[in-house]
Structures are given as C-alpha cells and as structure tokens.
Amino acid sequence: MDAVSVEGVWKYFGDFPALRDVTIRAERGSCLALIGRNGAGKTTLLRILAGLSSPAKGRISVFGGGAREQSTRRKIGYLGHGIGIYDELSAFENLRLFAKLYGVTDAPGRAKTWLERVGLGHVHEGLPREFSRGMRQRLAVARAFLHEPDLMILDEPFTALDDRAIAVLQEILKRAMSDGRTVIMSTHQLREALELATDVALINRGKLAFAGKRSQAMLDDSGWLYRNYGEA
Amino acid sequence: MRERILYILAAVALALFLWNLQTIFKVLPDEANQGPIYRIVYFHVPSIFTGFTLFFVALVSSIGYLWTKDLRWDGVAAGATEVGLAFASVVLVTGMIWARIIWGIWWTWDARLTSMLICWLLYAGYLMLRRAVDEPAQRARLSAALSIFAFADVIVVWKSIEWFRTQHPQPVLSIRNGGGMAPGMEAPIYLNYLVMLILSAILVILRLRQENIKREIDALRRFAHAL
Amino acid sequence: MNFLRNSLSIAGKDLRSELRGKETINASLSFALVILLLFSFAFDPGSDLVRDISGGLLWLVYAFSSALILNRSFARELPNDCLDALLASPVSGAELFFGKSLANFTLLLGVEIVCLPVFGIFYDVRWAQRPGLLFLVLVLGTWVLTVIGTMFSALTVNLRLRELMLPALVYPMIIPAMMGAIQLTTVLVSGQPIGKDNQFWFKVLIGMDIIFTLLGIALADVVLVG
C-alpha cells in the first residue's frame, strides 16, 4: 500500500485554482521532495495531506484512510510555516501537551527525550518567546515529530534555520527514513532537500509538472528541474 | 420554460391576492372592537407563517449543503433567509402600526413582537456573517452552521417568551381575540399565506438563479486564471 | 473516555496559559467592575428598585464582560499557527470545542463570583440569602453563555471583523437563557422563594444547556475545518 495517494485533486480559494488535477503517489519509506515556486500550490497540497483542508474535487488516501480521520492523524506529523508552539507555556509543557494529544504513553518522558534530542534540554523550563529563532524552530520540530509518526510532512522546513537547526533536522529525517518512515517535504532549498530525497515532484501553478525518482542530473545541477519542466 | 412557469405562478399569486384584497376590504364588515384596523391581521399573520416557513426552508437547505457540499443548497438557504427576513420586517412593521392605532404606542414588549424581533436579529446576523466571508465554500459552511443554531434558538425563544410575557400582564397582541374569529373572517388569512408562499417561491427561485449565474461567472473566471 | 481526556488536556492548556499571563481575565474583571460602577449612576443604590433589577444588572454585566474572554478563546490559537497544530493532531473539533468551553466556563464563573460581593457593596444588597440556588443559576446560565460564545468564537476566528461579529451573533441567541437567569437571580437575591412560575425558567436553562452543548459538539468540526 502506498503511504500517500493523491488522485485528481482540485482546490479553489474563491476564484483561484490553487491545485489543478494533481495526481501523485508516495511509497512507504520514500522521501518525496516537492519543489516549486512561491504560490505554486505546495503548501495547499501539504495542508490537505495533513488534514487541515479538504479538496474541492478528488481523493486523498493516507495509509489507506482519509486524511481527516482521527486514527490517520495519529500517524501524521506536520511541520508547517507556523511553528505551532505556545509562547506562554514552557518548552517542556508544550511538548508534553502535544505528546498527550497524540496519545503517547509516557508524555513527560517523551517530551524530555525530545528536548534533549533537539538540543533544548538545558532550557526546558524556558518560555519560547525568549528563545532565538533557531531554538524556536528546533522546538517546533520536536513538537511535530515526538510522537514518531509514520508520515512526516514538512513545509519549507529549511527556510531560515541556522546551521545547528539544519543539522538537527537532517539527523531526525535521516533516522526517520532508516526506520522506514515516509517523508514529504516542500522546499526551495534544493540542495538540502535533494540530498535526502528519493523522489522528486515539481508543481507549477497548481499543476504537477514532473514526478519521478531523484536523479544524478538533479543533484549535480540545481536548476535542471526548472529548466526542463518549469513554466509548463 | 422556467421563465414561463415563474410568470404563471406570479399571475396566479396576483389573481389570488386581488381576490383576497377585494374580500378583505369590500366584503367583510369591520370588526366589533377594533374597527377597520383589524384588517392588518390579514397581512400580519400570514407574514409570520411565511417567515417561519422560509426559516425552516433555510434550515433544511443548510443541512442539505453540509450533507452534499453542493453550493446550490447554499443558494437556497441564503435566498430563503433573505426573503424570510423581509417578511419578518413586515411582521414587525404591521405589528407596530396596529399597536400605534389601538394602544397609542409604537412598541410593546409583547410575546410575539419580542420573539419576532429576536428572530429578526438572529437572521440579520446570518446575512451579516455572509457578507464577512469572501470565499464561497467557507461562507456556505459557516452560514449553514449559524442557520442551524439560529433555528434551534428560534424554537426556544418562542416557547420561553410566550411564557414570560403571559406571566407579566402587558397589553397582549391578541389579534386572534382568543381564537374566536367568525368563520368567514379566517379564510383570507390562509389565502394570503398561500399568496405569500407563492411570492416567496418566486423570489427564492430568482435569487437562486442569480447565485447560479454568479457561480458560472466565477467558474469562467477560474478557467481564465488557469490558462 | 478519550473525548473527556482530550477535552481536559485542552481545557488545562487554556487555563494554564491564561492564568500565567492573566491578561484576559484581568481585562474582563476590570470591565465588569467598571460597568457595575457606571450603572450605579443610573439608579439610586440601596433602594428597592435595585433589588428588583438586581438580576438584570448582574447578567448584563456578566454578558458584556464575557465577550473579552470568549473572543480570546479561539483567537489565542492564531499566533504561531497553533490552531493548525491542534487541528492536525488527533484531537477532534468537538474535543477542542468542549475543552475550550470548560476553560471559558471556569474563567467566566470566576469573574462572576468576584462581582457578587462587589455588587453587594456598591448597591447595598444582601445577595447571599439563597447561596446554593444562586450558585446553581450562575452555573446553568453561564454554561449557555459559554457554549454559544465558544462556538461563535470558533466560527468567527478567521474573520476580519471578529471582535464585532462575536457579540452581534451571540447576544440575540442567548436571550432566552438570559431572561431565565435574570428572573431567577432577581428572585433569589431578593430572598423570595422560587415560585412555580419561575421553575419554568430552570427548565429553559437546562434545556438550552443541553441543546446547545449537543449542537456545538456536533458542528464543531464543520466550523473549524475548511
């Protein structure tokens, strides 16, 4: 069974077609890099996969179930543009809350583990509003993935991260993939993403312009995709 | 074809209405206690019936939209609420005119008038909400939810205010005079109700047609954007 | 059981958040006290008239000052896209709604209870003559205000004119409950027994509590997810 299956999906915002007849698949254990310019529809597609939005037409299937079902959402971890962290609660309290909501058995323990893992163990009682941007991003990563989801969805995760945060994220993603989890991430930063990706898809003005395996050509030349498939 | 049906309906409604007017003004005698002004009941009461029928239609259409996600249901809900609100306004205005003539005051916190005012506010809120949301699917979804809440409230409002006001002696708008209207005098109420229903159906259909055209234009615009 | 557990997690989070900063509850309480003060200029405090309108006075104060707390309920999820994080989690819209209702109810009740002695002092009214029943009325009336207010907080969270639309939508809808709460409060503050007439109002309050809680739970997902 595919991890994710998207068939004939359309999404409108008022008049504007954000997604036009998008059909794409992601196999279990793969890492799909979703590439495209700003406004191409990457975020829209990822939000639909995360269950935050429903398509106007078409079907979505995540591990065989609908994206909105509670049992499916337990297996999904979503890191969007916003960090999804409460500034008034401590780093530890934030993680513990989400661990509880995702049904993790030992929520406080898991929260502590992940705080260490993203390098925030020393500030677990600190308030996120006092953290640096990189620290907030790292906390967001912990919040999104501490329940060890089978599908990890990330929307432009490498944007505005400092090196430490990038390293942390790459480590988490590599470990996830070796555990057989599936990753879908949208990105501008082609290099970081393509290093990890097994599959690549290009979205251009709401339409899927290219979908296939990552190739050496793409790795060698970051403009290859856009030159050959962009502005369709 | 549709056009022709609408015209025929309009003609029928007009004919019935004129017949009814003739009955109301020419044939029936003045009412014993109230004098000529009692005839306002022939517009006041059917408007209440019509208003509530339309609010009920809005409820059903709202549920229909949530069930099917088809925006045509949303069009019906919006149209029905708009026309319903118009009739609710008629109820309030005719009630106020009657109160002014009979008791010399424009407004009285009578059970029915107060309930109608609250209903008016609830559904005016519905229209206000629709104006605040631009995106069609979101607008349909949120207003459907509001319509369901509003109707549940309408039921509670009418039951509880009736009780409240009957406990506190106030001039009561007993237009039906305790239900004891002479037989010939009641028929025009129901006939006017029929007229108003036909009129409402026509208005809602027109409104629905307007919505459909708007959606077609939207779709064409979308198509143009996508090119 | 999961429903209750998730709802309580959400309620706990909201309360912890609010009690740490106390911004909204302070604003709401200040607003309530100011209204109480302003009203005292409209009537002659200490007169019999005040006893007759005590219910109306108190519930007007409660209704107005609640707007701040109710508005903030879902608005607090907007910074950092926390609402998205919650909706993407296994928590259902209904659990989110119910949890927030529990938190809002606690905050509203807190404000109301603080207002009572202040009311008693400003208006020279001995309000605590039937404390048990009075508390019951507070609970029943506040729950209606809470569920309707929380639902519309969710409905209006993404709208431009949120602060304006929330009161405009909520106040007409809560009128029957307000009427009941006002009647019963006036009777209880005056120390009179609850007559048979007024027992009807308990039915209205309980009825509205049940109907709107169920409606809220049923429609929460519809309202929150696009």
Task: Give a brief description.
The complex is a heterotrimer of chains A (232), B (227) and C (226). Chain A has nine helices and nine strands. Chain A is α/β, with parallel strands linked by helices and 232 residues long.
Give your account of this protein's structure:
The complex is a heterotrimer of chains A (232), B (227) and C (226). Chain A is built from nine helices and nine strands. Chain A has helices at residues 42-49, 70-73, 91-101, 107-117, 133-145, 163-178, 190-196, 216-220, 224-229, and strands spanning 4-13, 16-26, 31-35, 57-62, 76-79, 151-155, 182-187, 199-204, 207-213. In chain A, the strands form two sheets. A six-stranded mixed beta sheet of chain A has the order 5-6-7-3-8-9, with helices on both faces. Chain A has a three-stranded antiparallel beta sheet with strand order 2-1-4, with helices on one face. In chain A, strand 1 and strand 2 (16-26) form a beta hairpin. In chain A, helix 3 crosses helix 4 (107-117), helix 3 packs parallel to helix 5 and helix 5 runs parallel beside helix 6 (163-178). The longest helix of chain A has 16 residues, at 163-178. Chain A is globular and about 50 Å long. Chain B is mainly alpha-helical. Chain B has one domain (2-22, 39-226). Chain B has helices at residues 2-27, 41-68, 71-103, 111-132, 136-167, 183-226. The longest helix of chain B is centred in the C-terminal third of the chain and has 44 residues, at 183-226. Mean pLDDT of chain B is 83; it is low at 169-179. Chain C has 226 residues and is mostly helical. Chain C has one domain (2-224). Chain C is 82% helix and 0% strand. Chain C is built from nine helices and no strands. In chain C, helix 3 (48-75) crosses helix 8 and helix 8 (175-189) packs antiparallel against helix 9. The radius of gyration of chain C is 18 Å and the shape is globular. The mean pLDDT of chain C is 91. Chain B binds chain C through residues 66, 118, 121-122, 125, 128-129, 132-133, 137-138, 141-142, 144-146, 148-150, 152-153, 156-157, 159-161, 163-164, 167, and chain C through 148, 151, 155, 158-161, 165, 168-169, 172-173, 175-176, 179-180, 183, 197, 200-201, 204, 207-208, 211-212, 215, 219, 222-223, 226.
